[in-house]
Design brief:
Blueprint lengths: L2 H5 L1 H4 L4 H4 L2 H15 L9 E5 L5 H8 L3 E6 L2 H10 L3 E4 L12 E7 L8 H10 L1 E12 L4 H9 L14 H10 L2 E9 L10 H7 L3 H4 L5 E8 L1
Length: 228
């Protein structure tokens, strides 16, 4: 599979995307973003970029909170799914080349996206570029220490994913953000182990209470940073 096909993997099955998604993981990330990281912020009229919006779950939540939401994703098919969920401003584009000026958005969100690019560090640089001074950048990404499990799953053909999978490490993410002049306000993990089996979800929620202490070893890294 060439680079173009890898980048557009999700857009090709946009109509089936929600059926393939793990709703437990999705709901946990929505909670982390809106009930934790953005709990104290009034989103009304804030310029909000959902970078790599997918089918629009996070865009929809931000629209409901009266933000001025821009949903950015790689193709028209997936943005058509966003339009079914909310009335955001839909923009075709890549997180590697975000089509907005420097210091444009009050809040930039990018959840489970940068690992699906050939250059996650460049993606983080672009995300930081379009955040206003004093603005908020929120990123979630799979933790690279769990990557061997995905290699095994792919080898056994247990999952259909064929795009990029460039996962990021805990300390690596810290270094990137601070190197770009952002101050990390909160950094935590979710999912102490894979969330595939529903009967384990209560156990996972329990260990999420230790998200700051055990974050470096959890499946997903979640970080909120402020651009100074």
């Amino acid at each position: 599979m060439d680079q173009h096909d890898k980048m557009f993997f999700y857009d090709r099955f946009a109509a089936d995307f929600d059926d393939k998604m793990n709703m437990y993981d999705l709901k946990r990330r929505i909670e982390i973003v809106f009930d934790d990281f953005l709990k104290e912020e009034l989103l009304s009229d804030k310029l909000f970029l959902d970078a790599g919006s997918g089918t629009g779950w996070f865009s929809s939540e931000a629209v409901q909170k009266k933000a001025q939401v821009y949903s950015l994703d790689i193709g028209e098919n997936i943005l058509a799914e966003v339009a079914m969920k909310c009335n955001s401003n839909r923009v075709v584009g890549s997180v590697l080349e975000i089509p907005f000026n420097d210091n444009y958005f009050d809040i930039v969100l990018c959840t489970e996206v940068i690992e699906h690019t050939p250059d996650p560090k460049k993606a983080v640089t672009e995300l930081a570029r379009v955040v206003k001074k004093g603005g908020t950048l929120i990123i979630t990404v799979p933790n690279i220490i769990w990557y061997p499990l995905i290699v095994i799953a792919n080898f056994l053909k247990l999952r259909p994913y064929e795009g990029y999978e460039n996962w990021v490490g805990w300390n690596e993410m810290k270094k990137w953000l601070t190197g770009l002049g952002l101050k990390i306000e909160s950094m935590k993990g979710i999912h102490l182990f894979p969330f595939i089996l529903p009967f384990t979800h209560n156990i996972l929620r329990y260990f999420d209470n230790y998200e700051s202490h055990l974050g470096f070893m959890m499946l997903n890294i979640c970080v909120k940073a402020i651009k100074e």
